[in-house]
Structure formats: C-alpha cells, structure tokens
Amino acid sequence: MKKILIPTVILFFSVVVHAQISKAKLTATGLTCSMCSKATYKQLISIAEIEKVEPDLNNTAFLLYFKKGSSVNIGDIKKKVEDAGFSVGELLVVFNFNKQQVENNRSFTLDNNTYTFMDTKSGTLNGEVKAKILDKGYIVEKEYKQISKMVKQYPSYATISKNLFHIKVL
Amino acid sequence: MNKIFLIVFLFINSTAFSQELFVFTEPASNMPAKSLAFRDMNGFFLEKDGKLNYHNMPELMWGINKKWMVHVQGFISNRQEGGFEAEGGSLYAKYRFFSEDAIKSHFRMALYGRYSLNKADIHQQELETMGHNTGYDAGFIATKLLHKVAISSTISYERALDNKPDYNFPITESNSAMNYTLSVGKLMLPKVYTSYKQINVNLMLELLGQRLNENKKSYLDIGPSVQLIINSQARIDIGYRHQIYSTMERTAPNGMVLKFEYLFFNAFR
C-alpha cells in the first residue's frame, strides 16, 4: 500500500477561531422505514451537545440543533448514525463566523477539530454560514470518488483523520 | 411452482415503500447498537389428526454494536403429554460483515449461527432447531433494499443432535440439511410520512425450503404475512405458513404465526 505522508501544510495556517456550530442538517442513507428513522433519531438525541432533533421522515433527513456554547464533535454524529445501522449521505453544518477569512486550503480550528476550506470562493465570512462536510463517510461514495480527483489541489484531503474536516461553503 | 414465481415477481414489481423486518426469516441488517428488544412468537400449527400444536417462543434481542447482535430464546409448547411445557432454548448471533448504503437503498450481508437445546421427542424428518431439535444452524444472509422493495435470501446448514436426555436422534434419518429462503416485503401504508406515530402496514411474502442431505428429501413452504408497526417501535406480525410440497415426514407444517415485538432504543449507554 502506498504510504500517505501526513501533509504538514494543513496545520500550518490553522488558527483557533471564535466561531460556533449552531445547527446541522444530516441526510442518512440506507433506510426508508420509520422504525429505522426512529432508531437514528434516538441515537442522535443521545448526543449530549444536541438540544433538539427534527426528523424529516420522507427524505430520511434530520435537523440538529446544538446547545448554546457547546463544543460540537462532528465525528459523534457519524458514529451515532452508523450505530443505528446506517450511513451519513450528506452533512451540512451551520457555522457562526466572526470575520472569518476564507480561501482554499486555509484551515481553522474549532473545538479541537480542524476545518479546511475546499472548492470555495475567497472572501470574508460573517454570521451564519452553511458548509458541507466533504470527507469520506460524510458524503455518498460516488461523490467521494469524484472529490478525491481534486487531491492534487487539496493535498490534505488524502489524510483521513477523525479531527480533520474539509468544508465547502454553500 | 411457476405460479409462485409469478406471484413473487408481481410483488417485487408493485410500487410502494418496502420493509425487511421479515416474519419467518431474519434480514442481514442488525438492530440498532445498544438497543434491546423483546419478541414473543406464537405458533398455532395443525397436526393431521386435528390436534392443535401451540408453540410459544419468547425472545430477548440485543444489538451489541453496529456489526453484532445476539438473541436468547426459550421454547415452550403443548406438544408433550404433560401439557404446556418448557422444552428448550437457543442462542443466536449475527455478524453483519458487509454494508453499502445509498439514498433509500442498501445492500447488506451477514453470517449467523444458532445453537439450540431441546428435550422434546423427535417426531418428524424435518429438521428444525427453532423449537424441535437440539442442534445448530449456521448460514449466510444477503438483503437488498432497492428504492421501494426489500428482498432477502438466506442459505444455511442445519445439523440436528440428540434431544437429551431421553431422545437420541434416529440413526436411520438424515441429521443434517440445507435450508434456503427468499423473502420480499413492502410498506403499504402510510403513503407519505408525517410522524413516527403513524401506523405502518407491511406486506410480506416468503419462500422457505429445506433439503435433507442424506436422503435428498425436501419441502417448500410459502409464508404470506401482514405486519403492523406502531409508534415506530412495536411490531405485530400475523403470518400464515403453508406447505407447497414435501417429500419428507412433517408433523404439522401448516399454521398461523402471531408475533409481538417491542424495541427499547438506547437501553445500554
């Protein structure tokens, strides 16, 4: 197997920011039935940082509302969906930014997680901003294969770590 | 036989949502991790002389993690002369080793094993480690949920041992068999989801076959069933099992099954 060198560049520009994740929209895959959806709901609501979960049964989606001031671990969401027996098909996260500089390959650290911008227009972000998690296990397999083709442009994308995320601002 | 395949074919091609919580078989999917479920299976099977055999099989099921689940089951029946009596029990484990999810679809594969104890008399050529024979059953399950239809198939090896202490397995009979099943299911109601409280109605059709390894005798059963899911947490199954053909001796192949199940989410933290 080809050894993947952990790119040191990813942490290079990573700055700790005063931002917060307030909401997320999760689409689970692998299910249709309400019992399966309820199993996923029950797993998600057991996350301590989550205040409320609103299920959308017809689209197998869930709106997650996080408690104010809580530190959100994105990895917990994936683990809970998988514990219910299913997978994450899409995860959209709402960040509350305060003058966040954005450019591709730039990273910031929030609640011990590092987020790197990908495929996003440069600029400054303020207030509620919706972003999509692009890492493996957070998107459908087909999409992951497609994004993997951009690895030359985004070297850190090849590194799979539970604290390292790549986001695209929508 | 062709008629049955036609029925199965029409069933697969009809449009509706689907389900895979089958009545006569288990799907390759597991129950949620850290959850606990209680199931009570009641079987009412008619013997040829008109006697009604009642089997009660209470069962506890535990989702250990996303890959493993175990069941512990008891077998009680009125078949013995003493009347209603506990005859044995079994331990079942399932390992989901493959899972591929996409929007509203999945494909899963699992391996399972069951070990059962039973002290009842051995009264038929059919092997059944669920409530009749001491022995084991090990198999492979593949389940596909494709848009609105669930289809599942099982192949297993079943081996009967002596029903200790009083009944040895007859040496003249085949003590092992291959089992094969094909199940399809679909959700009839609701057409559109509005809440977890809606009652879900599922229809299922299953084919269940066995072939004894030593004398090549076989049977094939068909099992249609209706399932109600209440509050996305409780199940009521009403099924009927009917023998299509059999070349082996079976005491009471035809009958009704009534199953109740309740799922406790996050029972373990």
The top level CATH class name of chain A? Alpha Beta
Approximately what portion of the residues of chain B adopt beta-strand conformation?
over 45%
What's the number of domains of chain B? Answer: 1
- Between the first and last Cα atoms of chain B, what is the distance in angstroms? 49 Å
**How does the overall form of chain B come out from the CA principal axes?**
globular
Task: Count up the domains of chain A.
Answer: 1
Structural notes for this entry:
- The complex is a heterodimer of chains A (170) and B (269).
- In chain A, helix 2 packs antiparallel against helix 3 (74-84).
- Chain A has one domain: 2-Layer Sandwich (Alpha-Beta Plaits), CATH 3.30.70.
- Chain A has 170 residues and is α+β, with helices and mostly antiparallel strands.
- In chain A, a hairpin with a 4-residue loop joins strand 3 and strand 4 (61-66).
- Chain A has helices at 9-12, 34-45, 74-84, 141-148, and strands at 15-16, 20-29, 50-56, 61-66, 87-102, 107-110, 113-117, 123-133, 164-169.
- In chain A, strands 1-6-7-9-8-5-2-4-3 form a nine-stranded mixed sheet.
- Chain B is mainly beta and 269 residues long.
- Chain B has a single domain (2-264), classed as monomeric porin ompg (Porin), CATH 2.40.160.
- Chain B has one helix and twelve strands; from the N terminus they run αββββββββββββ.
- A twelve-stranded antiparallel barrel of chain B has the order 1-2-3-4-5-6-7-8-9-10-11-12.
- In chain B, a hairpin with a 3-residue loop joins strand 10 and strand 11 (234-246).
- Chain B is globular.
- The interface between A and B is medium-sized, with 28 and 38 residues.
